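User: Assemble these into one structure.

Assistant: Restating your components, then the assembled model:
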Amino acid sequence: MMDASFCVGRPSWMADRRRMKTSSGFQWLLSSFVLLYVVNQVNSQKKGAPHDLTCTTSNLRMWDCSWKAPAGHGALYEVCVVNRFNSCYPSVKTSIKIPALSPGDHEVTINPLRDVRSSISKFVLNEENISFIPDAPEILNLSADFSTSTIHIKWNDKGSLFPHHSNVVWQFKILHKERMDIITLVTHNTTLNGKDTVHHWSWTSDLPLECATHSVRMRCYVDDPHFSGHKEWSNWTPPKNISWSPEPQPKALPLDRVLLVGSDITICCVTREKIVSALVGNKPYPLIHLEGENIAIKIHDISPSDSSGTNVVFVTETTNMCGTVFFAGYPPDIPQNLSCETHDLKEILCTWSPGRVTKLVGPRDTSYTLLESFSGKNATFKRAEDPQNGSYQLFFQIIPSQEIYNFTLHARNPLGQSESTVLLNITERVHPHTPTSFKVKDINSTAVTLSWHLSGNFAKSNLLCQIEINRSNSVQELLNVTVRGAENSSYLVEVGKLNPYTNYTFRIRCAGESFWKWSSWTTGERHLTIEAVPSKGPDTWREWSSDGKNLIIYWKPLPINEANGRILSYNVSYSSEEETQSLSEISDRQHKAELQLDRNDYIISVVAKNSVGSSPPSRIASMELPHDKLKTEQAVGIGNEIFLSWDYDPNMTCDYVIKWCNSSGPGPCLMDWKKVPSNSTEAVIESDQFRPGVRYSFFLYGCKNQGYQLLRSVIGYIEELAPVVAPNFTVEDTSSDSILVKWEDIPVEELRGFLRGYLFYFGKGERGTSKMRGLESGRSDVKIKNITDLNQKTLRIADLQGKTSYHLVLRAYTDGGIGPEKSMYVVTKENSVGLIIAILIPVAVAIMVGVVTSVLCYRKREWIKETFYPDIPNPENCKALQFQKSVCEGNSALKTLEMNPCTPNNVEVLESRSVVPKIEDTEIVSPVTEHPEESSEADAGNPVVVSYCPPIIEEGDEAGGASQVVYIDVQSMYQPQAKPEEEQESEPAGGSGYKPQMHLPVTSAVEEAPADDDLDKTAGYRPQANVNTWNLVSPDSPRSTDSNSELVSFGSPCSINSRQFLIPPKDEDSPKSSGGGWSFTNFFQNKPND
Amino acid sequence: MGHVCTKIMKAARVITEKYYPCLGNDFHTNKHVCEIAHLMKRTQAPLGLLSLLLPPFSAAAPISPAEPIRQAYSLALYMQKNTSTLLQTYLQYQGSPFSDPGFSAPELQLSSLPSAAVSFKTWHALEDGERLSHAQGAFLALTQHLQLVGDDQIDLNPGSPILLAQLGAARLRAQGLLGNMAAIMTALGLPIPPEEDTLGPVPFGASAFERKCRGYIVTREYGHWTDRAVRDLALLKAKYPA
């Protein structure tokens, strides 16, 4: 029993213990297999004899046989199996247990012993006619795990009762007690092995067990292969219930369940109150009523939860709430990219990525355990060391003396587990840390020691390290070294074959001996190797000074790879056969020395010195050997170099030297030189200093018997260009048909190439015309002469026309192109005979024509008179037309209907306080109007009003918006039609304002005179004042009616533009006037100024 | 011109509306009010919180209650600003229906946490000492509960540092207020109630749903108690003017 309950607690062990031996199987005897069967009755029955013998078996060992017989007290039967040694069994009842009979027919007799009336009955019994009905099984234990909604059933198979090993089918029926719904019907197969065995079976309910009372029943079916009779199911066991005593508070179940996304779940609420709604998240679900008030909901195809889970809430009638949370997610994915390596052979670092997100967090999150199968050790991933960039990592301590590791990473969460395996030899997975304390130390000028520190237990293996050597301005070099490993040690490596006094950058990285991964590079370490003795003497040359007394020694600074350090000074010494002399030390910045030598032959040696020592001397002979007269050759370079070659000369025992200079440059000819070995016959001279279009001189020296001999002299260009200037030319002589031209040479610097010739163009043309523009386009009238004789300096052009302007152009050209042009216009001299003829002929012709015309006119003079000027009568001579002549001549004013020019009169009249009427120009503001702004606002209410408004007629050209007084008809009185009403009203009030002249006292001009003063003051309109002068000028003005003139011309449709008269001179000067009184016109005029 | 004028008018209106009680007839006083209003806008509260949280136990000698009351009142006012944010943040992380807008479950209560609800008459009739000890008891319970809720949320929402930080901050403030209240009680000569374990045996087996509800109640009650503390302290402040 102890064993059995243990097994219930550990369902996973059930399978292992299924065939557990049970020593005591006797209790199986109590259970019975019941079956009914009717056995064949062999003989015909007599009344009262036993009949209807039926046999069944529950365990195949014993048969239960029963028969029917007439009732009788104290009946005793003897049952005999005939062909079994006549074994007979007495029985007091009408049933008997007999041992199982062997297959085949058996004759059975039942003899009622005490009943004399009855007779013996005979039956034939066969196993085939026997029913095998096992006894109903007995449930030993029924328990429930509410947290997992699992029911555990334990029972004994009573295998000891059965003679044979046989298969058994167990059937379980689980139903809800109240509603008797069959929830599930499950079969479970086992075998009987002749011993009593306790079996376990578990079932997990969809519905939490608390939500409803579950009943469990079971039965069995024994499939004995040796039994040939009829096999049947046993009876069901009586139901056993699993119930739960609910708490008073409503409770939702299951709690905190972790589920697979997409699965289904039933959630119920155990309650005594009525539930009105159920929500999953915020979505209502249909209620399923269970027993009592209990409610369930079924959720299908669950979607992934948030981190805090999916809430399910039940709300009761009394708005009480109960709820639960489930967490839907995924089982852990197989850990991806599991890889392990070690940095230091002390710890193994395994990294992986988790794969698909499980959607489960916190305590439900995936836990990882790394198990090493050889050592059996493990390491557990801790959440704190959270994933960096999506990958997880775990450290595992290295086990000494173990190299092969078989790691299994288990990933586990409530929904499942997965694993990933990696097998590795850790010595092949060494990925060292970046070396530290990387240092460089000098050994000598060409070797250094590199040292670095590497933490890790590399004592048993070697390390492969790579050294990168970077020389400034040079390719990098990689050096692989293998160093003996040690524990947390520093390592030393010697690096040789370096150049002295050179900057190197070293860096290093390491890997395990069996390469897996390089460590990161250390940071580069710059190092300058120490100096060494200069390997060569400087490249020297010598030149005699221009006076031939001094020898100047030139040398070039040593290149860095030959200097092997910083050159501090140079030593120059010269020796003849007799003596050796030295100059004082020369500083490193100076690269020449001047020696005063007699004409002896000297050998001059130059030595460069750095801090370590002196270079081997470079020697040069002072002697200059005489040479033949040399012809200067020409050469043109290709690209940036010039190629020189010469014949091999076995006499030349030492180097050839080519020196060159800019031909046109000042000073001694030495720009640079180049030494060529004595066995070569050519040299390519190259220099950054070469410029195209510049002429250089090259001199080739050969060296023999310790002296130099000039062999060749070459001038050349690295590239020829066109001349920059045109040749200067002049006209020497001009005749009527020829011109003699003379030109000068172009300076070498401006030629920029070897001169190849001149181009001379000439054609008719005058200054300022563009006739010669298309010189090169082959115009037919332009002639070209190509002068290739460079010594020719003059040219005569013949066959020209006299007195004609010619355009002459001269250009020089090199192989680099044609230079600019120089042009000149020359007029050839006149041809005098032709000129005389050209004058005489037209004169003669003109005279001839004149004579002929005169003669003709004279002959035909009568006809001409009739035709062109016949006599005409003269009205002057008519007496009838001589009336009023005196009048016409005497007074020019007396003319009938003379039209006067009609000039419009611009007037703006402002009314003022003054009694005297004022008439003002529109542009002038009344000085009386002291507050223009007020008046503008006051409009008609102000006494100072515009007494005259601009009439409707406007003339655009007049000053903007100027008013005009139009005299429509002088005689019909003045009636300004455009005058506004209010002005008319105000007029009588003030008695001022504009009054047309007709309203003014027309009595006399005398009266006007005293008014002048007033008018001056008030700036009124006063054309009248000038009436005298005006009268003469414009007698048609209305005022002229007052004049003494007798002849008044009425009816003239004329108006006066009295502008100038309307402006009182005083006002013009008045500063106030410019301040601007208000008027319509001012308003318009001032507006643009705003 | 007109644009600037409109702006000034608008600013003036805002100031008048917001700081009406502060404004008087004196121009210079009003100018000062405006300056303060401007400063208040600029100085962010967390800066002020540090000084408010400073332990007020520095002086052993009896001090005037006005200062600790003022400090406590300022802290309570500051806390009041953040309580609804805390509740909203909390609910937002609990999933629907908690996170649904307008979620409220006033019937949920925790036996270990005293409710802030009290009838006005009762509240008004309270002695200073009672008033303070009620609040003190409540905030003591709240600090412990907030710790519990924080732990619960580490399990439920480990990936939500914002929520965890807000819960932590709320607990710290509640502790700060406790300290301030103790100072007031010292100043008033009232006995300081002993710290007791209000939580009792922690129901470790609580289901996730229970934890969520518990957290909701705690954050909700934290707000209610803060509101009540502000009123308590305002009353005290009026009683003990500086």
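The first helix of chain B runs from residue 2 to 18.
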